[in-house]
Amino acid sequence: MRRLALAVLSALLISCAMGPDYTRPGVSTPESFRMAEKEGESIANLPWWKLLRDAELQKLVRIALNENKDLKQAVASVEEFQARLFIARTDFAPQASATGNAPSFGRLTIVNIPGFPTPSSYYVQGNLSWELDFWGRVRRENEAARADLFAREENRRAVVLQLVSSVAQAYFDLRQLDMQLDIARRTLQSWEESVKIAQARLRQGLIPKLDLDQFEAERANAAARTAELERQMVQKENELSVLLGRNPVQIPRGRLLTEQVMPPEVPAGLPSELLQRRPDILQVEQQLAAATARIGVAKAERFPKITLTGLLGVASPQLSSLGSGDFGVAGLGLTGPLFNAQILGFQQQAAEAQARQAVAQYEQTILVAFREVEDALVAVRKTRDQTLAQEEQVTALRSALHLAELRYKGGISNYLDVLTSKRSLFDAELSLTATRRLHLVSIVQLYKALGGGWTSGTSMQ
Q1: Taking phi first (over 0 means left), then psi (-120 to 50 degrees means alpha), and beta for anything else, what does residue 235 get?
Q2: What is the enclosing helix (H) or strand (E) of 91?
Q3: Exposed, middle or buried, 400 (CB in 10 Å: 0-12/13-18/19+)?
Q4: CA angle 278, 284, 290 (to 5 degrees)
Q5: pLDDT grade, residue 289 (50/70/90)?
Q6: What is the C-alpha separation between 86 and 83, in angstroms, rounded?
Q7: pTM of the predicted model as reported, rounded to 2 decimal places
Q8: Are 317 and 109 in contact (CB under 8 A)?
Q9: Cα–Cα distance for residue pair 138/246, rounded to 1 Å
Q10: What is the DSSP pairing of strand 305-316 with strand 95-101?
């Protein structure tokens, strides 16, 4: 028996797992990002609370990290695959079970084989079954289960990163709507004053009815824009409430859009770091590792399974003499494919095709990641330039409106100058607010595209 155990152990040690071992596919990465302005430590090394400095926004993010339902689902998925990995690991160990029998009805007969049970005898027996993993099927299944778990963990990290960026973007959207609503209300009030002046001038016979109609039309337009912004603001609060895992509520505000503090420089770091940082890339890589391991599982299924079995127990036709008759047996079991061998071959081909799909998905995910970084980099740079240009435009239009109103009140110019100036200023102020918001969102998108917050010693929590 000792020689048999030693032989089995030696065979297991020298046996190799079938199928290919996983190696990361070779992908080409650029030496630097095309739209990067400067080199330096990546902005992604900042934890999110050092990027988002608004105290109210930080509170909202922490609430979302604790209450968001998508994140809870991702965490539960990790726990599920942890259990699945533990189940897969038990295949390495012998499987043991116990059965017993105590007949209550019918006539007891003599045991057919001395010491062994029959359905009409009392017996207690233990069963042992241990698959000898000569072909590495169990090892490959464990590799696949472990990679599945790692993929779910990376998915959880991706959900966290997406959640932080979504809360930040929704909050900046809300602050943009707040500023635009304030602009719309001020513009509406200005049109109200213009209408009053036009009504007085009409009564004096200084202007025609057409001028008053034009001013009233612009006042109605400003009132409509105000109502539209009020609707968008409430709907954005509802959207943000869902991210927080709560029913729609009013969202507290912190700093104004113009008071948000962001890093003056946003270096992206090295492109090669992206492969080690972004959770979606790491997730699809683990999915590829699992698919590679399942090729070995499918290949090993085409070979016989060798099982060490054992049976031990006591049996007797009478309960009083149950302990007097013991029995036991041990041996090797061999199970191999016969008529389904062709099906198992197709299963291996299917597993290989799934691995090729995983390779293509991995490569595509990397391409998308680089595109998102480049898009965010150019957005950060150009929205900053755009903001400066629009600020100059707003300043010039405010001066033009002031002069147009003075000339109109003095009777030097007609109402068209005031209409044009006020309308242009209103649109320019709304556009400037949208660009300021876009600049902040672009920095958040760059942080997300770089897989921000995942350096050693930092946590998204």
Answers
A1: alpha
A2: none
A3: middle
A4: 135
A5: very high
A6: 5
A7: 0.82
A8: yes
A9: 45
A10: unpaired
188-245 confidence digits (pLDDT tens): 888 888 888 888 878 887 778 887 888 888 889 889 999 999 999 999 999 999 999 9
Domain ranges of the chain: 55-93+133-302+337-449
Closest CA to 63 of 170, 181, 215, 196: 170
Please give the C-alpha separations between residue 77 and each of 70, 222, 236, in angstroms, as whole numbers: 11, 50, 29
The CA distance from 197 to 176, in Å, is: 32
H or E stretch including 459?
Answer: none
Q: Is residue 304 within a helix (H) or strand (E), and if so which, with residue range?
A: none
The label of the residue with tokens 């509802």 reads: 238
Contacts for 411 with CB less than 8 Å, ≥ 6 apart: 206
Structure tokens at 37: 């302005």
| The two three-digit tokens of residue 358, written as one number | 């995983």
Tokens encoding 442: 């672009």
The Cα-based distances of 321 to 73, 112, 173, 244, 328 in angstroms read 57, 16, 83, 69, 17
Sorting pLDDT into bands at 50, 70 and 90, what band is 435? very high
End-to-end CA distance of the chain: 56
CATH number for the region 55-93+133-302+337-449 comes to 1.20.1600.10
Distance in angstroms (rounded) separating the CA atoms of residues 117 and 111: 7
Residue with tokens 């430590």: 41
Task: Tally the C-alpha atoms within 13 A of residue 232's C-alpha that lie toward its C-beta.
Answer: 17
